[in-house]
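Course assignment 3, question 2. Fill in each field.
Student: A.L.
Task: Predict the tertiary structure for the chain below.
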Amino acid sequence: MDLSVRVQRLPIYTAAITTIVVIPSFMDPINLPKLWILCLGAGLSFAVLSSQIVSQLRGPRKTIVFVSLLFLLALLISSIASPQGIFRTLIGVWGRNNGSLTYLALLIIFISLTSINSVDPSKYFVHSLMFLGFFGALYGWIQSVGTDPISWANPGNKIILTLGNANFASAFLALTAIATLNVFLRPKMQLWKRMALGTSFALQIYLTNDSDSIQGLLALLIGSAILIGLTLTFSNRTKLKKFAIVWWVTLLTSGALGLSGLFGGGPLSSFLNPNLRSIQDRYYHWAAALNMMKDNLIFGIGIDSFGDYYREYRTIEGVNFRDSAMTGTNNAHNTFMQIGATGGLVLLIAYLVLIIFTGYRALIAFQKSNDKILVSGIFSIWIAFQVQSLVSIDQIGLVVWGWAAAGCLVALSYLDAGTNTTKKSSRTSLKTKPPKWAEKYAIFLLLAIIGLLPSILLLPTIQNELSLRSRIVDLVSSTSEDSLSLNAEKLYQEAKNSNHPELRLQALSYLVQTKSKDISLDLAITTASQFPKSFESWDALARIYEGQGQKEKALIARKMTVKLDPLNEEIKKLLESDMASD
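Answer field:
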């Protein structure tokens, strides 16, 4: 294969490896490894495709650069205005990692693909998802029968793939199933290949349904229905074109019935209404996000800091719905709400511009491209991703495919019909003096260093997670009082090096169990002071004070928990108890 073709596929390679990679030895075996691979791949894509990206400034694709720079500027402004620390802004909350760094890497994946003057990466995009669907279906089946070679914390043998959650797994299988169907619908295919694709598609449908996740099933149904409708619409056969009208009418009718069924009306209510509770729960997350936006309209509360403010902004209806005030969430479970609440109107508008621009260019791609099946497939995958993003989280292994699909659609819209390249504009066709060999590689080296910088900066975080897990294992495995004391001190020192309050609190829970009073208290005080918006940190500190009988100090910490969670009656009772004992 031509080296230039491999280079152009680099963003797709990045997406595939990001989805697959997990490192079980990490405290978070899912998201941090995926973030590192995403940053590494995006950095390399930036280095090797930078000349193509820059050339867009002088050609017909300069609008892409403008839209991308708008999002980049908005991300930078929201990040600078964020009231939280720079680490949390860049990396995001532990276990999610939807910080500024993630969206920067996704933007690079998007703009890298838009700069390519070939249809090959778009074809490779679909085929990559198709193959991932085949192997993902096999792995999902292995998980469902309880023979997973990886020892996940996965009660019930749910289908989680390498994404850590049944909802994310079902949504990903929806995308891969649509890609499989897209290849299946191509004409002039050998029978054995069509049978293999049909079997794979059927298995992916079964697993998506078996995951008990409505978001994946809805994304699959909507994406597949759109793909079939588009295939019929663009068919060369008159009868199929006529049937397309019937298909679209049926699809719209079914959509209306399905929507009413989710809310308890119509003939589909008995099937869909049981899923209403999950949607209602998300509705209360959205209500909290809207409350955050009202008070922090322009710049938001801080990138990926939804969990720090959720308890403060949630509604009493949301508390009553869950029958408990002790539960929380760290994401709005809606990409638009999440971005609006944490990044403010500045970032939300820029994101909406990217979405609208992609949709507009998709329409142009349909007009210009001779390969309507390819465009239909990528468009259906992109729509399915947008559907699931209305009720889900930007999980790194999943969201990368949404941004890659957008990049492929935009790139296809600039290709001339029947060719693999765009026309050269009068400006780009001007002869320019090529750079000397030394200059060329010096520039590449500089760009590579810049591009790899984010992944290099993540290495201390990776080392900290590995060390924390090792320290916890050593502590639990202690066989004497001396070794217990020594290992507790090592865990304490490593926990203080962590920039994630969630990891510190995990270490704290082990220290409390070993009755390491002094270092437990010191770690709790340090964590609460460094992360003043963390309800869990103040609650842990208050409980330690309460357990040690230090009522005055416990009262101060408990008042902070009530301030951060004003609707929590259980916490208020603890405060009243502390006040009565004072």
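Instructor remarks: The CA atoms of residues 186 and 380 lie 15 Å apart. Residues 335-368 form the longest helix (34 residues).
Grade: pending
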